[in-house]
Amino acid sequence: MNKSWKLIDKILSGEKKIESRWYMAKHAPWDRIKEGETVYFRDAGCAVTAKATVAKVEQYSDLTESKIRALVDRYGGSGGLAFSSKSLFDWARKKRYCILIFLKDAKAVTPFDIDKTGFGNACAWMCVESIDKVKYIKE
Asked: Helices 65-75 and 85-92, interaxial angle, to 10°?
């Protein structure tokens, strides 16, 4: 997450209730995230500092500008995405896919690092069976 946007603080305060992913092609966590799972959050280049439970997942494909406008009008601003509707629409208007991950029970965690080996340094989302599989343990 972009640290300057302070999204983790907004998740922990409950202002941001939805994590969204907007894509040109289907990328993780498309078809891989389910209700009841745990999502961990970290700012780019930092340790993991928060987690939340997935309350619901909605996926949208074959997006058009009018479909994106409807999603942004419904969920942007105070609708749970914590971005203004205008800035979100301007950013997402050419995307073809959207995943909305509704969050509940957000909590701060004792910070820990992760090992992204095999996922790529630039990956924004990692799907793993257990967080213990990617926790970085200093030797």
From this structure: 150
Q: How far apart are CA 124 and CA 22, in angstroms?
A: 12
Residue 58 parent element (H or E) = strand 48-60
d(CA 66, CA 47): 38
Helices (H) and strands (E) in the chain, counts: 3, 4
**What are the structure tokens assigned to 123, written together?**
């990956």
Residue type, position 96, single letter: R
**Any idea which residue has 């609708």 for tokens?**
79
Alpha-helical regions (H) of 2-124: 7-13, 65-75, 85-92
For each of the domains in the chain, give its residue range(s) and CATH number, in order of start: 3-113 (2.30.130.30)
Alpha-carbon distance 15 to 4, whole Å? 16
Q: What is the pTM of this model?
A: 0.92
pLDDT tens for residues 70-124?
Answer: 999 999 877 888 888 888 889 899 999 999 999 999 999 999 999 988 888 778 8
